[in-house]
Design brief:
isomerase, about 160 residues, EC 5.1.99.1, 9 strands, globular, 2,3-Dihydroxybiphenyl 1,2-Dioxygenase, domain 1, 4 helices, alpha+beta, Glyas_Bleomycin-R_OHBP_Dase
Length: about 160
């Protein structure tokens, strides 16, 4: 029958247990990469974006918070397993203002991943020739220390690391 044909024509799949363990290739670190905290999206109209996620898609959406030290307004959209961070420029020197000049309709700006020890992560990443966009962590939108890794070192993605 059909089951016999599927079993005989299905390709053989190697399992991880029969090959070299994936974790054997990862050197031990003094810090640990954690969960995806959020994906940040630059938006040209923050109120319109808030309404999309709250009124059209039915998500729980935070109030707008100004972060002058980062040059942004932020709104967080709760998704259960992670969040979206909506970013809008605060001031003309905002990095989001320059992003939106190049991307008029907005778009993905960065991803944020938690780490258990941001200072140890910085030390080790510098040893591995990873460029960090600040000398010291700054306090981010969640009130925790954050750093950003250069997108050219992360396959074109701006990566934010946040102390868990």
């Amino acid at each position: 029958g059909l089951l016999t044909r599927l079993q005989t024509s299905a390709p053989t799949v190697r399992t991880l247990s029969s090959s070299k363990s994936f974790s054997q290739n990862i050197p031990s670190c003094l810090w640990k990469l954690g969960r995806l905290n959020h994906v940040a999206i630059a938006v040209p109209d923050l109120e319109k974006a808030r309404c999309l996620y709250r009124d059209v898609l039915g998500a729980q959406v935070s109030k707008t918070v100004a972060l002058p030290e980062h040059g942004v307004y932020t709104v967080f959209v709760e998704l259960g397993n992670t969040k979206l961070e909506l970013l809008h420029p605060l001031g003309e020197k905002s990095p989001i203002a320059s992003f939106l000049q190049k991307n008029k309709s907005g778009g993905m700006h960065h991803i944020c991943i938690e780490v258990d020890d941001i200072k140890a992560a910085m030390t080790e990443l510098k040893k591995k020739q990873m460029r960090i966009l600040s000398e010291e962590p700054k306090i981010g939108a969640h009130g925790k220390p954050v750093i950003f890794l250069h997108p050219k070192d992360c396959h074109g993605v701006l990566v934010e690391l946040e102390q868990a």
